[in-house]
Amino acid sequence: MEGFALNVKYAVIRCAHLENDKLRMKKHTQQIKDSFDRRIDYLRISITDRCNLKCFYCRPDKKIKYYDKGEVLKDDEIVRIVRIAHKYGVRKVRLTGGEPLMRKNILRLISSLKETGIHELGLTTNGIKLSEHALDLKRAGLDRVNISLDTMDAEKYKQITNGGDISLVLKSIKASEKAGLTPVKINTVPISGLNDNEIESFASLTFKHNYHIRFIEFMPATCGNVWEKSKCVKSSEVLKIISKLGDLEQMKFRGKGPSRNYRLKGAAGVVGIISPISDHFCDHCNRLRLTAVGKIRPCLFSKEEVDLKTPMRRGASDADIESLFCHAIQIKPKGHDINKGLVDQIDTMSKIGG
Ligand code: SAM
After folding, report:
1. CA triplet 7, 309, 221: central angle to 5 degrees?
2. Cβ of residue 215 lying under 6 Å from some atom of ligand 1
3. SS3 281
4. 145-187 pLDDT per residue, tens
5. Is the pLDDT of residue 127 over 90?
6. DSSP count for the chain of H helices, then E strands
7. Which of 115, 181, 264, 323 is geometrically suited to a Cys-Cys bond with 176, CB 3.0 to 4.6 A?
8. Are 92 and 119 a contacting pair, CB within 8 Å?
9. For the structural domain made of 2-352, what CATH number should be given?
10. DSSP letters of 50-109?
């Protein structure tokens, strides 16, 4: 408890400093910035570390033990943290995991989160269970979905996910459009020699559909030694391949997130590239992560975390938790070093919240 008290004291001092220098009042919320003048308005929350797929690079069979249920944040704890995050300027929340649709009572959680006043609530899912819930999720307050799909080949999908049924994912994409969880974003991780021959086919989907196809560089966030730099298809390479399909218009250098967006001439949808390996986007980073066990992780590639769950369960006041939250923002590093030579493999995304 002593360590916690010190931590809070330190964070209170930092917060007081912030109040003077950096707090911006907007309605009832205060927009705070981190030590590098970045506005932090996006929180990604892992609501479970459990998953119904075993993608070979993320959560292969038996390699990772699940957290005990009691260790994972409860609904009211998540809502409390989001209420505090909103007070300090977080406008956008994304639920992820693990597979977020594996969490019981997710509809109730979504409505409670929406009641906190956050502007946008998204969900990243593998799409296996989404088609059955798309409409209810929308009615509960979910704004949009990102669906992960690394291949359009049924056999390859089975191989990558260790037995997954692609037809369920394709059904979910349609169901999400119908439910208005739009624009539907499709996340694809091109891996050299595995699915890089499908980049054109994925991008071609945007001619007919208003999908946002997002190509994410393969990161050293895997279970086991699966990652090698040579397996990561650089975004520049992806763009070269896509530009064979037609003129590419860059839509905006960068929105609030890390994606650089393009539209193929005449296309209905958008192609986005996310380049954590080949192009540092840390200067624009606006996000924090909350792990399934209640730790704020200011940077995906730094192991530094701030525990909110332990103090909450020991009776910490909202003011204490607010101070810790502000502290987490202040220790957000300037950038990661994964592309400066030595690569430090971090935990699998399913533990941190991908
Ligand atoms: N189960 C959900 C899903 O499949 O979308 C949410 C969790 S999953 C960890 C979130 C995203 O992280 C997926 O799109 C997955 O492809 C991506 N991901 C996992 N490991 C990755 C890695 N090493 N590099 C890049 N993306 C990764």
Report:
1. 95
2. no
3. coil
4. 999 999 999 999 999 999 999 999 999 999 999 999 999 999 9
5. yes
6. 11, 14
7. 181
8. yes
9. 3.20.20.70
10. --S---TTT--TTTSPPPPGGGSPPHHHHHHHHHHHHHTT--EEEEESS-GGGSTTHHHH
Q: How far is CA 128 from the centre of its chain?
A: 18
pLDDT of res. 32? 84
Q: Taking Cα atoms as reference points, which of 320, 342, 266, 246 lies closest to residue 81?
A: 320
Asked whether 46 and 348 are in contact (CB, 8 A), the reply is no
Find out whether the beta carbon of 96 lies less than 6 Å from any atom of ligand 1. yes
pLDDT tens for 298-323 read 998 888 999 999 999 999 999 999 99
Asked if the model's pLDDT at residue 126 lies above 90, the reply is yes
CA dist 229 and 235 (Å) reads: 13
DSSP 39: B
270 near 257, Cβ under 8 Å? no
Phi, psi dihedrals of residue 18, rounded to the nearest 5°: -60, -40
List the one residue out of 205, 193, 350, 352 whose CA is nearest residue 288: 352
Both tokens assigned to 131: 């088609």
Name the least confident of 7-21, 89-103, 203-217. Answer: 7-21
Looking at residue 134, its pLDDT comes to 98
60 C-alpha to ligand 1 centroid (Å): 13
User: Ligand 1 centroid vs 58 CA: distance in angstroms?
Assistant: 7
Strand arrangement of the beta sheet that strand 306-307 belongs to? 248-252, 260-264, 270-274, 212-216, 185-188, 144-148, 120-125, 92-96, 42-46, 287-290, 295-297, 306-307
Check: CB of residue 100 under 8 Å from CB of residue 53.
no
Domain boundaries, the chain: 2-352
Q: Is the CB of 126 under 6 A from ligand 1?
A: yes
